Description:
The structure holds 2 protein chains of 2 kinds.
Chain A: H1 3-21, H2 26-41, H3 49-52, H4 61-76, H5 79-91, H6 95-106, H7 113-124, H8 129-142, H9 149-158, H10 169-188, H11 207-224, H12 232-253, H13 263-296, H14 298-307, H15 311-328, H16 330-345, H17 352-356, H18 359-366, H19 384-405
Chain B: H1 2-23, E1 39-42, E2 58-63, E3 66-74, H2 82-94, E4 96-105, E5 125-127, E6 137-139, E7 156-158, E8 165-167, H3 174-177, H4 186-200, E9 205-212, E10 221-224, H5 229-241, E11 247-250, H6 259-266, E12 270-277, H7 290-295, H8 299-308, H9 319-340, E13 347-349, H10 353-359
Parallel strand pairs in B: 3-4, 3-9, 9-12, 10-11
Antiparallel strand pairs in B: 1-2, 2-4, 4-13, 5-6, 7-8, 10-12
Amino acid sequence: MSSPYLFGLALLISYWLFKYVIKLNMELSLLISALLSSLLAGLAEFQYRWFFALAGVTDILLPVALGVLAVIILDHGGFFAGLLSVVQEKIESSFWQKLTSGLVLIIPGMLTGSFLVSALVIRNNFKSKRGGLFWLLAFIGVLMPPINIYNEILQRAVGAGYGYGGFGGEFISLIIIGIILLLVSSFLYRDSSWQLEMEPGRIQMPISLALIVFLGVELGMRNWGPELLYPQEISFFLLVLVLGLIYSLPGDISGSKTKILSQKELKLIQHRFTEALPYLFLVLITGFIISISAFTGFRGAVLFFLEELQLEHLFLLALVLSLLLSLLSPFIALAILAVPLLHISLEEASLALPLLVTLPAVYNFIKRDGGQEGDLGLVKRLTAKNILVVAVLLIIVWGNLLLAII
Amino acid sequence: MKKCKLVIVIMVLLIIWGTWVNYQPHRQEEIIAGEGVTEVSQLSDYYPDLAGSNGDTKIYTLKGEDEGGTAVILGGSHANEIAGVIASINVVESGQVEAGRVMVIPHANASAITNRKPLQGDPWRITLDPEDPDSRHIRYGSRYTHPLDQWPTPEEYTHVSGELDFPGTEGRNLNRVHPGQSSGTLTEQISYALFALLEEEEVDMVFDLHEAGVDSNLPNHIITHPESIYLGSEVYLDMEFAGYSFHLEQSNMDFRGLSHREMGEKTEAYAILSETANPYQGNYFIDSSPEAIMSGEEPGYQRIIAERNVIPAKEDLAMNNRVAAQLMIINQSIKQLGSFYPEKEINFNFPEPEEVRDKGVVEFLN
């Protein structure tokens, strides 16, 4: 067996061993299995050059870490809490309010869907079906322009972001799909487990003002700001930091005991950041696996295999893989599947495939805990309602496929 | 909490390791100038603002005792298109010029040599003699200027002519930003300096040495500006007679930013771009061992060639043959320049392509 296939096999077996037999957590299991399998695949000619192939992955640390930290600070400053509380309130009420609040979440530039959901990810750790819904919307938000930190992270971390989507037919289609999913799921789920913890004594600034300030400054810096000599992520982070501090002010003005960057606040931020570390780690390891896959030739072998499939079989396989990989992690599923699938079939069905790779997110939504770390009990939770949600997406995907083939 | 501490420790170790690894490609590439090199200058001599930046790069001049024309060889416009880099280093380390002048820039985009495409699994250097780990290594870079040298990367890059928009990353691609501008980005400034060089030195012929993935339609191509196509067709025929199967194309004048299109239009030089086939420039390779990199016996791309009936032959993927093809294009083009314009004849003695094929590129390095 040549090394690419050996690598793929070793990766799967060693992951299973570390995760389910030795019972390490997912991140460590992935890291160890990736390193072990690359060693195994290259035993005959192992040199340190293998590790140099991974070096590009370290570039992701800066944007990812700063992105997450920015979200934490904004969140702590009350920015997201205010926005989310409005959305949360509206989404539980009438049809039109569901619709408008949904649009706030998925419309482009919305800071954007994915950015907002990043806050949810850190805040709520996917502990509800509603959290799962927003995770799904995050993936749809990834497809949308223009201010999208999550897409930036995906691009740099795993090369699987979607870039600038534009305002054409695909954008309109995605808006419609997003609204359908939002409405269907919000009617199906009325769980109250998703609660925002508002800090006592903190007065929120009007959310509309927050939106205007943030969008205005961000767009202004992009279009009319000075040419920056330091990385874009840092400038973005500084902006967020300033806004976070500004939004901390009302609490202090109102006489709250909370002080800007008090010891308590620093500890809170530190705590939130520690919570986010596993996500950073997961991103890093995913990048490792992709790099090793490329260097060992496993990616090339997969591409050859996929390319020889007929388009219909390709979609079927993608569907199955989506399901299997989503049990591992929807993020990894998206990252690993998106690259080869988009590479091969972008021209044939440009809308269908990005949608198809959101399927893991759908399953994440279905899962009770909606967690990063799936388990094999998924099938047991496939209720009629859940199947309905998936069916809606499948109809859209396969309908698009049908159009592509015709 | 223990898990968190473990994660933090591992991440710190990874960052330390990553920093060390990332440092390696930033070391200077070692080029040992041969006896034929009469002067070593800097690109910043033509645009002083480049001095001290990561875009500045060395120019090796081989000047003959007799008068003649001037040719410029650009290797490493895309630093991962490695055969062009090696061919230009071969000329610097083994070439001789008796009449006229040849100026060689092995790393036209010096910043790109310090960069690598993330997640591609690209090596930071390649070993020219796989059987001898201590043998000469050549840096393997990226298509793009290092992002840290050119922040921020916009969502869209508009060519200086205003006629064409590219994705933002292409603003870091030297072969999309020509003719550049003095007040522009680092990549545009590099381009601007190159154009200043072509003008000040009254260059008669300029080569931009490239490679392309086997699954693209570019390998084994010679592309010239329409005004150079007649000379190009002579070179094409010479190549055919010598057993090199290449295609000849002329610039698409609507596609702005390419070296052959812009240099051919804005300077007096014959502008020629060469493309050989790099089996590691794409997603399909399944063997990245040093032996496969040098021999070109990469199963994935050999398979593509067999199945798709693409232009390069299997043997065209071998590094020695790719470098030989690049040298063949240079040699035949300069000879044709002399036959077109005797007063611009450049009498030179570069590594012979046949010898490079037979003996290997290492033989022509110091």
